[in-house]
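REVIEWER CHECKLIST
Item 1: Sequence provided? yes
Item 2: Single chain? yes
Item 3: Sequence as submitted:
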Amino acid sequence: MKHLRPDKRTHREGRTQVRALAGLLAGLWLAGCASAPAVREPVNLSEAKQAALAYVDSGDYERALGKVADEARTWIRTRAGQAKPNERLVVVFDIDETVLSNLPHMREMDFGYVADRWNEWVARGEAPALTAMRAVYDEAVARSVAVVFITGRLDPRDRAGTERNLQAQGMGGYQQLVLALPSEKGVPTAERKRRAREAVAAGGFVIIASIGDQWSDLEGGHAERVFKVPNPFYLIP
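Item 4: Structure as written out by the authors:
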């Protein structure tokens, strides 16, 4: 029997088709790789802590605080001058990283949080005032505007240390100090503080300014103006 020899042209066409198919598959694979989202490594925690401290040590943090404080003081001065007869004006402040700085404790803990150590720090009442924001407090008092502090510190555990700390830092002349209650555990910060401001307003006060270092301190209304203080250290949603 005579064997038939394959046609050379058929071989060439077959090889061409195989190469074309291989090229198509490779192209599809590369396209898939290109379209897949790249996994980006987050900022290293040590670098993030160093950046926060550099922000403080460079003076940028203090300058940013001063800018907000100047704006708040100007508003309080202006609004107090426009007060109607018998209008009871009040400014609401958060405490931590708003009027008192916990940076000495954060440095000591390398920005870690240990509940017992934090509770001891609050009980000692040694947090220094943020001087720019204390000037806002002084502006309110000088203009006969009441001051209310609304904080996430816990009542009754943290009340004595907080009262002592505010008094020692020249901010003891407030209308009310509102701390979080154990029964409010699980209530979002923004909602808890909104309720507290609502209660202040229901007591006959006009809240002309709400000042805090977290947006959750300020959300929810019941204030004519809000002032966000910079905080590069932590976030409370």
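Item 5: Key structural point noted by reviewer: Residues 62-228 form a domain with the Rossmann fold fold (CATH 3.40.50.1000).
Item 6: Recommendation: ____
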